[in-house]
Amino acid sequence: MRAERSTIVFNIMGYIVISVLTLLCLLPFWLIISGSLSAEDDIIRDGFRLVPQHFSFDAYKAVFSNPMQIFKAYEVTIGLTLAGTALGLFFTSMAGYVLSRKDFKYRDKLAFFIYFTTLFSGGLIPWYIMIVNYLNWKDSYMALLVPSLLSAWNIILMKNFMKSIPDSIVESAKIDGAGEFTIYRRLILPLSTPGLATIGLFLGLAYWNDWFSANIFITTESKYPLQFLLYKILASAAVLKTNIAGNLGADFKAPAETLKMAVAIVVTGPIIFLYPFVQRYFVKGLTIGAVKG
């Protein structure tokens, strides 16, 4: 009886602590939403509030002053995110599967070569020269897609996850006459769903948040991804270039602080809805390597 009572008290305290932590995590995002809907003068005068003193949609009018430009940027970003995540998962899972196989002759040498790239890099200038002069990907979507497909960290994470799959599964499949690609496609991939979800989330966030590559390689405005377009809108010199002032009227003064909040909502809103679908796989994918060694 005493044990049951202590368990109930413990559960209640746990729920209270989790609820408080959840509210603390949601508070910054709520402030962003409130700030994006506040009048610019209120924020300058009183700072951010949990509830806007005067509601204003000027920031969203500024962001969507050219809706087709925003929708085109969304299209580019979503296309790059989906293609990059799918291709990245394919190549990363294949590399992880090969490196996890103990009968692969060059496994240790190749693993060391991949790990070595995490210690040293060629630098920005050689990377730019290779992309522009040798691969001729200047102002091309390939410059945004290909460089982020593979990551040494993702390959190592996938390799460690696939090592936790019992070797007896592969051996029994070989006895039944299955080939390497059949084993990989029909056995390893279905068993690696948590790892794939984890790597997929990493890849998706990387492609969704990438603006620096577009800043370096993309010169055509219609090819701008969402992050870089909104970065240009926020930049003081880009207000006239994106026709915000001209579209909203000569007497319109583009907001500054509220515009930052509206841009944050436009950028983070869609990707937030993806996380609940992969959260349970994400946690399992990160912890299984630590549990099984």
UniProtKB/TrEMBL annotation:
It is found in: Cell membrane. The chain crosses the membrane at residues 12-33, 76-98, 110-129, 141-158, 187-208, 258-278. Residues 74-278 form the ABC transmembrane type-1 domain. Its main location: membrane. InterPro entries: MetI-like, MetI-like_sf. CDD domains: TM_PBP2 (cd06261). PROSITE patterns: ABC_TM1. The keyword Glycoprotein does not apply. It holds the Pfam family BPD_transp_1. It is a multi-pass membrane protein. It comes from the Bacteria. Keywords: Cell membrane, Membrane, Transmembrane, Transmembrane helix, Transport. The keyword Transmembrane helix applies. Belongs to the binding-protein-dependent transport system permease family. This is Carbohydrate ABC transporter permease. The lineage of its organism: Bacteria, Bacillati, Bacillota, Bacilli, Bacillales.
